[in-house]
Amino acid sequence: MRDLTIARFVRMRSVVDLDPPYQREGEVWKPGTRATLIDSIINGLDLPKLYFEEVLDKRVSPSGLTYEYAVIDGKQRLESILAFADDSLTLAEDFYFFEDDDVKASGMTLSELDETYPELAERFWGFVLPVVIVHANSGDLVEEMFTRLNAATALNAAEKRNSIQSPTRDSANRLAEHKLLTERSPIRSARYKYRELAAKFLAIEHQLGTKRRLSDTKAATLLELFRATRDPDRTISDAEMGRYEQAATETLDRMCDTFDENDPLLRSIGTVVVYYICFRDADFAREVRPAVLQTFEEARRQAARINDSSTLFTTRADARLREYNLLVQSTNDGSALSRRAEILRAFVLDGTESDPMLGLERMSDETLDVDGAED
Description:
The protein is mostly helical. Helices cover about 50% and strands about 5% of the residues. The protein has a four-stranded mixed β-sheet with strand order 1-3-2-4.
């Protein structure tokens, strides 16, 4: 690995795991940043070191080969290199070759560069990657290295959690692949949004299963849940986390029966969490219809446009809809999420076709003390 050229790396890409469990999401870099990296390579500039873990446990790549290495640090750089090698990334429009002003290679793919300036293409293929191989028997050490090496690149909360090896992480990552998220929801999975939602579902199951109430789904609470299933100081057993995952899967399965592919009703993360709380109730899942949920969304948006002092704002149902809208601002507060779910359940279960607001009219007033903070 001491003389690992880009050409050799591309040939062995099937045995290098770019996405081990602790890694962050791919394609975080913007095209301009990726093109700048290729510019640096062709101009012979030094790159920061790449850290590879020597894989000791047998993991098989999609091509059927056993991974020999996993990338601890350098994933974005390697993805950029592979994109240029595959002609899916071009040189920047302001590309400049330091050694020859006459080179005009702006916007070229690697194939085009090879045809016009083969010596520059050869510079790319022959560039030696600065790889450091890490030999470690401890997953904790590798994860600590990952966290420290990425400390300057502002890992978000979900990425920090994902660097913690634990049953909670494994359960969250499996739930993140559920078709309710990958097919039904129009939310794109940038920066681990699906894993964020999955972690919230597990936190909800844990809190309701142990405390009988929802406290919150804040970043610190989710992080503690990941640590709670990690040896040696675990407070949640593998069996308990397995039950939480199974319960979450069953709820998401019920939701799939209601929502369509890329359903606009699922475009808000906060609303998806409220739906999840409601769909834990099998009676709600049997009774709810997409048209009723759409009616609720339209009614609450209309209520938001009405001034409190308006003569149009007169009913108890209007007050409940306005209360729901106010609580939307407290996306991670357990009391706010529970109250939103209560309002939605009343609308769905107690409303009628002739009087859809009946359930809200019958609801009692309730004042919540919520912090309203977004973490």
